[in-house]
């Protein structure tokens, strides 16, 4: 690279640095809403382009990645692995951010990233890791355990996925054009445990000053790759294969990996400094060979022992699982009765999704009529979970708990219908169709109910719905009894539309006091669009 090109690149990086905002957030919650991920897993980093902050780019790095580093009990190797895991996450997210900053205007309407060189997976984070480190790292002890609040060991070992650009990562290319034919290694995946020496080396200034300068990017690549593992699937596979699939073709490295190449010749080393470097490299390659040989011999020994008549291995001991029994909390019945009494006010009838425990707690406090502390609420939920009555409750370690209503313990279905609003007249099928379209417009335009959060302020939604309605032309407007267009949906009409929507599982239903709730769409939505009884005379 010429000096001018280097300077140009440096300027581009500095300009990018002005635009990027770095944030720390928890890997177990959504970055915008703070609601726990529904999947229960965790993310290491997320790069976003918040509409309100344009042209700023935000990189969120999961703070749970740094938590293990705050203990003094880590040994040198553990610290090196955990440091690298956090650093490579930063590299990964930075690649996404640079694309968002430098992409051409035309590309802004596409959500996917471009393909890098001959790769078939459009994921620039992995591409950057691959170029820098000669593969992508994944940890044997995932940080998701920390993220879920469990006490656990640090990363312990990092394995490299030297071949990340495979059908295992096909979901990253959703929405991108398919490149046909894919390269042959697209259908196999390699995993290599990387010795901890590499992580020491990469975090040593001396390595960068001498070694990396001397041998260029190749010297930085992960290694030595001593014993690898390869899984292959047929080249007709289109979806992500299951790694536990026993029919996958599995191979150990000795049988397919190309050797690291001949030892470096001595005549290339002219200066004492070069001789020292080559000495070290040759020692590394000899170690690789001897480890591979040792492994092969060990495998052969085991095979001989199994084929021979040695004693059978004892079966693994099965430890009994101890489940603590929680006694009934003192205020359990009082809270239960309160929830039964406030069945509609707290919108328990329309609750058919996972809800964070603190959200429901706040609804109870806002509704009033019951004074409880958060600990009492949590005890109540834990007891409900144990007795399998009212709510299912999950909480892992220190994480936020999530609850879900179950059928047991609530009033029977027959007595569960809400009363009609005052002055109710049933909206026509046409009104309901229009209502649905307006709701979709509001949700799309203002991102109400974003990030899976199902409740929204009643009044705010009503106002926004009317703003959308005001864009309709005369032909599209609802008509009154005298066939005159109605310019504004009044409160009474809105109440009737929401009630009808609730009765017919249409789309929007009742949330807790002053809130609307988005319904989980029924599978037979088409059926529901048919007129229900007489059309309404005034709508
Ligand atoms: Zn990524």
Key phrases:
single chain, 539 residues, alpha+beta, Arc Repressor Mutant, subunit A, five-stranded antiparallel β-sheet, three-stranded mixed β-sheet, 14 strands, 37% helix, globular, disordered C terminus, binds zinc ion
Q: Could you explain the architecture of this structure?
A:
The chain is of the alpha+beta class and 539 residues long. Among the domains are: 168 residues, no CATH class; 84 residues, Arc Repressor Mutant, subunit A (Orthogonal Bundle), CATH 1.10.10; 100 residues. Helices cover 37% and strands 11% of the residues. The chain has 15 helices and 14 strands. The strands form four sheets. A five-stranded antiparallel beta sheet has the order 4-5-6-7-8. A three-stranded mixed beta sheet has the order 1-3-2. A three-stranded antiparallel beta sheet has the order 9-11-10. A hairpin with an 8-residue loop joins strand 2 and strand 3. Helix 2 packs across helix 5 and helix 12 packs across helix 13. The longest helix has 36 residues. The N and C termini lie far apart (71 Å). The C terminus is likely disordered. It binds zinc ion. Zinc ion binds next to helix 2.
């Amino acid at each position: 690279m010429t000096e001018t090109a280097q300077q140009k690149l440096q300027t581009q990086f500095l300009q990018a640095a002005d635009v990027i905002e770095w944030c720390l957030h928890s890997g177990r919650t959504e970055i915008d809403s703070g609601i726990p991920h529904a999947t229960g897993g965790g993310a290491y980093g997320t790069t976003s382009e918040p509409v309100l902050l344009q042209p700023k780019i935000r990189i969120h790095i999961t703070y749970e990645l740094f938590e293990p580093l705050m203990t003094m009990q880590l040994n040198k190797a553990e610290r090196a692995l955990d440091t690298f895991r956090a650093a490579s996450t930063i590299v990964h997210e930075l690649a996404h951010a640079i694309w968002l900053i430098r992409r051409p205007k035309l590309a802004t309407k596409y959500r996917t990233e471009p393909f890098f060189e001959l790769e078939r997976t459009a994921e620039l984070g992995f591409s950057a890791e691959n170029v820098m480190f000669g593969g992508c790292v994944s940890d044997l002890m995932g940080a998701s355990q920390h993220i879920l609040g469990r006490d656990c060991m640090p990363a312990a070992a990092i394995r490299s996925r030297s071949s990340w650009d495979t059908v295992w990562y096909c979901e990253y290319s959703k929405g991108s054009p398919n490149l046909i034919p894919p390269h042959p290694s697209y259908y196999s995946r390699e995993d290599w445990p990387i010795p901890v020496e590499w992580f020491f080396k990469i975090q040593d200034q001396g390595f960068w000053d001498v070694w990396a300068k001397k041998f260029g990017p190749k010297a930085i690549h992960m290694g030595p790759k001593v014993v690898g593992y390869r899984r292959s699937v047929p080249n007709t596979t289109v979806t992500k294969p299951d790694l536990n699939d026993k029919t996958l073709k599995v191979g150990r490295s000795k049988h397919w990996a190309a050797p690291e190449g001949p030892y470096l010749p001595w005549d290339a080393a002219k200066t004492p400094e070069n001789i020292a470097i080559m000495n070290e490299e040759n020692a590394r390659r000899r170690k690789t060979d001897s480890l591979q040989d040792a492994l092969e011999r060990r495998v052969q020994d085991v095979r001989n022992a199994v084929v021979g008549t040695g004693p059978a291995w004892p079966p693994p001991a099965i430890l009994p699982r101890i489940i603590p029994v929680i006694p009934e909390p003192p205020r359990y019945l009082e809270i239960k009765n309160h929830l039964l009494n406030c069945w509609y006010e707290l919108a328990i009838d329309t609750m058919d999704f996972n809800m964070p425990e603190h959200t429901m707690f706040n609804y109870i406090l806002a509704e009033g009529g019951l004074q409880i502390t958060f600990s009492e609420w949590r005890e109540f939920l834990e007891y409900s979970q144990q007795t399998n009555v009212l709510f299912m409750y999950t909480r892992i370690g220190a994480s936020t708990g999530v609850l879900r209503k179950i059928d047991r313990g609530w009033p029977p279905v027959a007595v569960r219908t809400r009363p009609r609003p005052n002055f109710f007249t049933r909206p026509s099928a046409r009104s309901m169709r229009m209502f649905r379209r307006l709701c979709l417009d509001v949700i799309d335009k203002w991102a109400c109910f974003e990030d899976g959060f199902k409740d929204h302020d009643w009044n705010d939604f009503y106002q926004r719905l009317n703003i959308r309605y005001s864009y309709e032309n005369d032909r599209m407007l609802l008509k009154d009894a005298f066939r005159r267009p109605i310019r504004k949906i009044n409160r009474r009409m809105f109440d009737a539309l929401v009630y009808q929507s609730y009765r017919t599982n249409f789309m929007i239903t009742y949330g807790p006091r002053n809130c609307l709730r988005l319904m989980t769409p029924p599978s037979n939505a088409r059926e529901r669009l048919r007129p229900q009884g007489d059309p309404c005379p005034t709508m």
